[in-house]
Design brief:
Number of strands: 13
Strand content: 15-25%
Number of helices: 12
Largest sheet: 7 strands, mixed
Strand order of the largest sheet: 1-3-2-4-5-6-12
Distance between the termini: 61 Å
Oligomer: single chain
Shape: elongated
Order of helices and strands: HEHEHEHEHEEHEHEHEHEHEHEEH
Bound molecules: alpha-L-arabinofuranose
Structural class: alpha/beta
Helix content: 25-40%
Length: 354
């Protein structure tokens, strides 16, 4: 009797271990979190507290079996933009008609892949994923396809056979880079020497690849533009600040600073001020279009912000409805986005939704 009870106990512990995602293989060394309230506000990120903690409030919020089970695998909580992206999905799927599960990818592709395998095993109806990097998705997308689960890629793209997923919703990152380059050439001209430092996003992400190639494609046509350095700050405020310090220590002739997101721009501005310099003495170009960045434009600290639209939840929902109704949808769905020079900031800041 005692032995049977012990065996039962061991079995229960084993099953629970699997359920909470505590497998011992390397890809599961970071716990896959299923939770419904991970959002930090954009102002948390601007003030630098956004990356510090994660809100671990529990499991999926609705387990009624007659509702569509939608699982969303996010990259991480790296920026105010990301908070707005997460919030948009939460607003769309977090109440009412869906059983919605949010997974924080914790900045690791292996965590995202493990999460996707878990959602496949748990027979979700639809999986939405924001991939951290473009490469390395074929195998797990193949598993979802074999299980008959539609996958919608959001934000960044994947380099994979497009028959493996239903569609992608996101930004034209190369156009964002091109828009930034065109604005710079129009604003700073084609004669005076312009030395540029660039703070790139996470290496291998579509946002980093597209913004870099689009921007360089434009300015490389002009002899007066020279990139002194271009390194990754990982879309992170603290890393951006550190990188800016290195740039300021190395170069005393910087004219233009390009930062691949607003989050790093906040770090850049802080660093410049701490070094006793004035952000207004540089041309600062940023991406995302957060309300906080508009405030920085009004203060004279950013010169132009190229929008990247995170409010993708409603588009994803309408695509899910079409896909499940058997309709064919376009493989690539681009969000609408604009370019905002500082001169527009005062009028526009009140309209910003993130
Ligand atoms: O992929 C979109 C980028 O990722 C945003 O520019 C950035 O802020 C985010 O973290």
């Amino acid at each position: 009797m005692r032995k049977r009870r012990l065996a039962l106990l061991i079995l229960t512990i084993f099953v629970l271990g699997i359920m909470v995602g505590c497998g011992s293989d390397a890809s599961m060394s970071k716990k896959v979190e299923l939770r419904d309230n991970p959002v930090k506000s954009a102002s948390d990120y601007a003030s630098g507290t956004g990356n510090a903690t994660s809100n671990d409030s529990g499991q999926n919020n609705n387990t009624s079996s007659d509702k569509l089970k939608v699982g969303f695998i996010q990259t991480a909580n790296e920026s105010g933009w990301r908070a707005a992206h997460t919030q948009s999905m939460q607003d769309t799927f977090g109440s009412g008609g869906y059983t919605y599960t949010f997974v924080d990818g914790q900045g690791e592709q292996s965590v995202q892949i493990s999460a996707m395998e878990k959602l496949i095993d748990e027979k979700y109806d639809v999986i939405v994923i924001a991939p951290i990097v473009e490469d390395g998705w074929d195998e797990v997308l193949g598993k979802a396809k074999d299980a008959g689960i539609p996958v919608i890629i959001v934000d960044r793209m994947v380099k994979a056979d497009s028959s493996l997923y239903s569609c992608w919703v996101g930004s034209d990152f190369a156009k964002e880079g091109t828009d930034a380059g065109k604005w710079l050439v129009e604003n700073n001209g084609t004669t005076e020497e312009q030395n540029i430092v660039v703070l790139e996003g996470t290496i291998g992400s579509s946002a980093q690849l597209g913004r870099k190639s689009g921007f360089e494609g434009v300015i490389s046509a002009y002899d007066n533009y020279k990139i002194l350095a271009s390194e990754s700050g990982d879309f992170d405020k603290a890393k951006g600040k550190e990188l800016m310090k290195k740039y300021l220590d190395t170069y005393n002739d910087i004219d233009v600073i390009v930062t691949h997101n607003d989050n790093m721009a906040y770090g850049v501005i802080e660093c410049i001020k701490e070094e006793g310099k004035n952000p207004a003495d540089y041309t600062i170009i940023s991406f995302d279009g957060e309300a906080n960045a508009f405030k920085e434009m009004i203060a004279g600290n950013i010169d132009v912000d190229v929008e990247c639209n995170p409010l993708q939840g409603p588009t994803v929902e309408s695509l899910i409805k079409k896909i499940l109704a058997g309709e064919t949808v376009d493989k690539e769905q681009y969000m609408e986005e604009g370019v905002y020079p500082a001169s527009t900031a005062k009028d526009e800041v009140a309209n910003r939704k993130y």
